[in-house]
Amino acid sequence: MGSVPPRPPPSKSVITRRPCPEQLSWLKKSALPPHHPRPIENVMKDAQDIFSYGFNVGHSRFFSCVPSPASKVSWLGDAMTSAFNPFGGSLEAGTGVCTVESSLIEWIAQRFGLPTSAGGHFVSGASMATLTAIIVARDQILGECEARRSKGIAYISDQTHFSVRKALRIIGIPLGNVRVIPSDAGFRMNPDKLSETILEDIRDGRRPFLVVGTCGTTGSGAIDPLYEIGKTTRLHNIWLHVDAAYGGSVAFSSTHCSLVSGLSNADSIAWDAHKWLFQTHGCGAVVFRDATTALSSFKTPTAHFLVDLDKGEDLPDLWNYGIELTRPARHMRLWFSLQALGMERIDQMISRGFHLSKLAERELSKLLGWKIISPATMGIVNFRFMPEGEPAPYMDIVNGRISKDLIDKNIAVILTSRLTGVVSLRMCTINPETTDEDIKDVVHALDEAAQLHYTPSGYIRSKL
């Protein structure tokens, strides 16, 4: 395979590692298989090196995007599942894992406040969950008539995750049939504006069919007013899908579950266990208020070579409830974690994220020149270095330099956001291994970087 260019050894303390040109060239070449077998220890060393490039999203000082601080128990569950390699599509072929998946989904639905008619299945993540859900929404509300479908209107907010637009595009909803509802000062969908827009579309002869609410926006952690939105959707026979990829995990915290009680209004929910329930990537779920709605969209006649596996509706096959036929047992890592950790410990781990974001907000509020853009909400806080009287464009540059400074110095990964149209800094603090001292040290480093890159005259000391 060739020697790897000199580099510091991978370390748990390294938050981000970027390849130099020589290392990037090696990475590309490493993808090609050799003609003869290589010693397994050499292959493992190369694999470790490949894994080391990029962000260490499980690091206690990685605060960007939505971190994925997977628990060691999830690692073990994932490894065991891969070793056994069970098939999760058919109950007959994967009796154990399919039975556990169905029962686990029923329990999750109960935590979300859904009725006993609820059901669903595990998917790779919220993108697939949302795509699956809005296919069902389209079929249930608009039916098969193309003329009716062409009039179908979907409603999202200006804070809705971009994966929802992608899903709408995939199922053939044109951009002109998507309404973007403004959010309020708390970054929540404005229910009055939603109702007004729906009525306008109805008067114009269109058919509203879908509203996508959010439980824990990626930008600020905001939760849309799902009770009010639910009243509107029920009034007009519109499907309510809730993107709870991030915030849905709070339903598993007895301390904070009341914050997400509005999930009970949903017709479908997308959720990621690999976010705030500490699983390895690829552990998401879609849950339906009425499981039979998914069955009507996805069940097709069984292939002749699979008829022996079809046991009828008393023993439903999960491949009939979604897009995938080949299905890994994604849920088993979560099952492993729930069994090994218990709900009391999981509540503590989730609650830790709330505490850390509030601590970051308090520490920042003590400093001169710093402004909180969105208060600590669901483990997320947005802030900006903005001394009085300074022009916004200049401070946009300064805040960008602050972010880069911390990353370059391997202090923390805090990326920028434009939540209110200006560059701000955002921390998502859901890693339960992050300490109070981590937060205090990082806030101190933020202020040091601000003083380095800001002068009242507007001069930036380091080159742009």
Automatic annotation (TrEMBL):
N6-(pyridoxal phosphate)lysine modified-residue sites: K275
Database matches in InterPro entries: Aromatic_deC, PyrdxlP-dep_de-COase, PyrdxlP-dep_Trfase, PyrdxlP-dep_Trfase_major, PyrdxlP-dep_Trfase_small
PANTHER family in UniProt: GROUP II PYRIDOXAL-5-PHOSPHATE DECARBOXYLASE (PTHR11999), MIP05841P (PTHR11999:SF70)
Keyword list, A-Z: Decarboxylase, Lyase, Pyridoxal phosphate, Transferase
Pfam annotation, one family: Pyridoxal_deC
Gene3D superfamilies the record matches: 3.90.1150.170, Aspartate Aminotransferase, domain 1, Type I PLP-dependent aspartate aminotransferase-like (Major domain)
The protein, known as: Pyridoxal phosphate-dependent transferase
Organism: Penicillium cataractarum
The keyword Transferase belongs to this UniProt entry's keyword annotation: yes
Homology family: Belongs to the group II decarboxylase family.
Cofactor: pyridoxal 5'-phosphate
Segments passing through the bilayer: none
Molecular functions per Gene Ontology: carboxy-lyase activity; pyridoxal phosphate binding; transferase activity
SUPFAM superfamilies given in the database record: PLP-dependent transferases
Gene Ontology biological process terms, A to Z: amino acid metabolic process; carboxylic acid metabolic process
